[in-house]
Amino acid sequence: MENCIFCKIVAGEIPSSKVYEDDEVLAFLDISQTTKGHTLLIPKKHVRNVLDMDQATAETTFARLPKIARALQKATGAQGMNIVNNNEEIAGQTVFHAHIHLIPRYESGDGFSINYTTHEPDFEALGQLAEQISKEVAQ
Ligand code: 5GP
Ligand code: ZN
Question: CB 3.0-4.6 Å disulfide test: which of 14, 27, 121, 133 passes with 41?
């Protein structure tokens, strides 16, 4: 897609530090390096994000994650890894070509943190919401 920075990286029009490539996907180091080794995995085919992704693209893209994650851990000596995917602006997406962040973790305070708000469980509301979502999944 024209004017898509990641399509330009796929086409080799913009340089990147590649860590893995095959016919379907590309993985390269994120320029921001939130932690050492911060990597992005993308489908070569332009798709906006997971909310727009077909199953075949998801299968090829997400299937590559464990192999790349293990290699990244081995190469960096990280203790663990956050695997993050932002969809739409509200969720922090700034580049609108689907990508998965692999963020190696070394220690708390290493540059990345994740905070979840937690609430007391309301089991009736949970049941109703699950039913509503499962109806949509079945569509
Ligand atoms: P998002 O915020 O959309 O989830 O993540 C986009 C990521 O792409 C950011 O972490 C940003 O650092 C990275 N990024 C943006 N432009 C480039 C680029 O030209 N090259 C590389 N390697 N990463 C980029
Ligand atoms: Zn693109």
Answer: 27
The range of the structural domain enclosing residue 34 comes to 5-114
Classified as helix, coil or strand, 82 is strand
Q: What is the pTM for the complete model shown?
A: 0.97
The DSSP output letter for 8 is H
Length of the chain: 139
Separation between Cα atoms, residue 5 and residue 28, nearest integer Å: 13
Active site residue 101: no
Confirm or reject: Cβ of 91 under 6 Å from ligand 1.
no
Looking at all shown ligands, the one closest to residue 35's CA atom is 1
Establish if 44 belongs to a structural domain: yes
115 lines ligand 1 (CB under 6 A): no
Identified catalytic residue from 38, 97, 99, 101: 99
Q: What is the pLDDT along the chain (139 residues), one digit of tens a residue?
A: 889 999 999 999 999 999 999 999 999 999 999 999 999 999 999 999 999 999 999 999 999 999 999 999 999 999 999 999 999 999 999 999 999 999 999 999 999 999 999 999 999 999 999 999 999 999 9
Q: What is the CATH number of the domain that holds 71?
A: 3.30.428.10
66 located within any domain: yes
